[in-house]
Design brief:
The complex is a heterodimer of chains A (about 170) and B (about 220). In chain A, about 20% of the residues lie in helices and about 35% in strands. Chain A has about 170 residues and is an alpha+beta fold. Chain A has a domain of about 120 residues: Rieske [2Fe-2S] iron-sulphur domain (Rieske Iron-sulfur Protein), CATH 2.102.10. Chain A has a three-stranded antiparallel β-sheet, with no helix packed on it. Chain A is elongated and about 90 Å long. By secondary structure, chain B is mainly α. Chain B has a single domain, classed as Cytochrome Bc1 Complex, Chain C (Up-down Bundle). Helix content of chain B is about 70%, strand content about 0%. The chains are: A alpha+beta (about 170), B mainly alpha (about 220). The complex binds protoporphyrin IX containing FE and FE2/S2 (inorganic) cluster.
């Protein structure tokens, strides 16, 4: 370069402007579709409402019992009544525990004492996943974390359940 | 008559060189099963493409009846399968073709692998081939949900949970693919439909084009 001021050639100038304008047009075309595609990721996760599951607290034993109840589920434009399921029991500290039956491996449904060879455990038929009564995953079986726990409250002697959270986060 | 039409077009836009570039070239002896029967292993790539064409054609016709709506998806598939003349055949082509295409793809890959045909200068085409493999797996995964029966639902439950195992971004991936963090429902079906019928086929065409252009540039690999 000589000592005089750096000159932008006509060709460079046109290249820069065209690239800039082209970039703006491409961004303008893509920004809204992309924002639309990721919208579900950016939705705040709604806190579950508590629902009466129709089980009197007096009927809860130390043996996990399955309870089912209906909630209204809103899936974007589609509202429907869906059945939720939980295993409810009292633990050694006499606290109420409501476990989600959804296997933490890949989402099949576990059942209490579902396998004859493993009494006192939750059993998942999909890949022989097992959980102890308090929901802890049995080492050596596929699930990598404990069964999720429903948040619960008691009103007028009846059990109300909300959303299921990973253990330790509820 | 046909010759006349061809000449009329050729006279104006000179298509013969284009046509020659695409289709008029010699098949080397070592890849011709008429010379060495064992050369049939070279057919698997072409067979994969053939089945892809079947998938695209049958899929296009299925969309004339199929609706990606959770109330009606299953019913529309049931209807086209039981009421529409030849619907069962077209669905059968798509259903079985989806498995056959993966088998052909694997056989083609095995041939390329064991012949060492992926070696320099053809590494790029191996990479494109791997991407094609992922795109086809994606088509199989998203297509499987569309009939919206129990098998479809739980396969997707499991598949999305596998995606959820990806470190750090797993939960985010589930929502992005499934349209909802927990529910496999209305938004999952529309998303999977869009991905199955528009996004992945577009990617498939682009990758196939690159795959074939590279083959024409580099030629088929030599005899062993
Ligand atoms: C390599 C390409 C493709 C593969 C591997 C593939 C795979 C699949 C699979 C596994 C299913 C489920 C079928 C069943 O369970 O019976 C399916 C369904 C479907 N696919 Fe594809 N697909 C491909 C390309 C396409 C294309 C290009 C279109 C549309 C332009 C399409 C449209 C559909 C539709 C509408 C259905 C729902 C109807 C049904 O389930 O029978 N597919 N696909
Ligand atoms: S889904 Fe329960 S063990 Fe795999």
């Amino acid at each position: 370069m000589s000592d005089k001021k750096k000159q932008v050639t006509r060709r460079q100038f046109l290249n820069y402007t065209l690239t800039g304008v082209g970039g703006f047009m491409a961004a303008g075309m893509l920004i809204s579709p992309l924002r639309m595609a990721i919208d579900p990721v950016l939705q705040p996760s709604g806190d579950g409402d508590f629902a009466n599951v129709g089980l009197s607290v007096d009927d809860i034993t130390t043996e996990p019992q399955p309870v089912e109840w209906e909630v209204e589920q809103v899936d974007a434009w589609y509202k429907s009544d869906v059945t939720r399921k939980a295993f409810v029991f009292k633990n050694d500290q006499d606290e109420i525990v409501a476990l989600s039956p959804k296997c933490t491996h890949l989402g099949c449904m576990v059942s209490w004492e579902g396998s004859e060879s493993h009494p006192d455990q939750f059993y998942c038929p999909c890949h022989d996943g097992r959980f102890t009564k308090d929901g802890t995953n049995v080492e050596g079986t596929p699930p990598l974390e404990p069964l999720h726990v429903y948040e619960h409250k008691v009103e007028n002697g009846m059990l109300f359940l909300g959303k299921a959270y990973p253990r330790g986060e509820a | 008559m046909l010759q006349k039409m061809y000449d009329w077009i050729d006279e104006r836009i000179d298509i013969t060189p284009i046509w020659r570039d695409i289709a008029d070239h010699e098949v080397p002896e070592h890849v011709n099963p008429a010379h060495h029967f064992s050369a049939f292993v070279y057919c698997f790539g072409g067979l994969t493409f053939f089945v892809v064409v079947i998938q695209i054609l049958s899929g296009m016709f299925l969309t004339m009846y199929y609706v990606p709506d959770i109330e009606n998806a299953w019913k529309s598939v049931y209807y086209l399968q039981t009421q529409v003349a030849h619907g069962q055949i077209v669905r059968g082509m798509h259903h079985w073709g989806a498995s056959v295409v993966i088998v052909m793809l694997l056989l083609h890959t095995l041939r390329v692998f064991f012949q060492g045909a992926y070696k320099k200068p053809r590494e790029l085409n191996w990479m494109v081939g791997v991407l094609l493999f992922f795109v086809m797996l994606g088509l199989g995964f998203t297509g499987y949900l569309l009939p919206w029966d129990n098998k479809a639902y739980f396969a997707t439950e499991v598949g999305l949970n596998i995606a959820g195992q990806v470190p750090l971004i797993g939960d985010w991936l589930i929502t992005l693919l499934g349209g909802h963090p927990e529910i496999i429902g209305a938004q999952t079906l529309t998303r999977f439909f869009a991905i199955h019928v528009f996004f992945l086929p577009a990617a498939l065409f682009a990758l196939l084009a690159v795959h074939f252009i590279l083959i024409r540039r580099q030629g088929i690999s030599g005899p062993l």
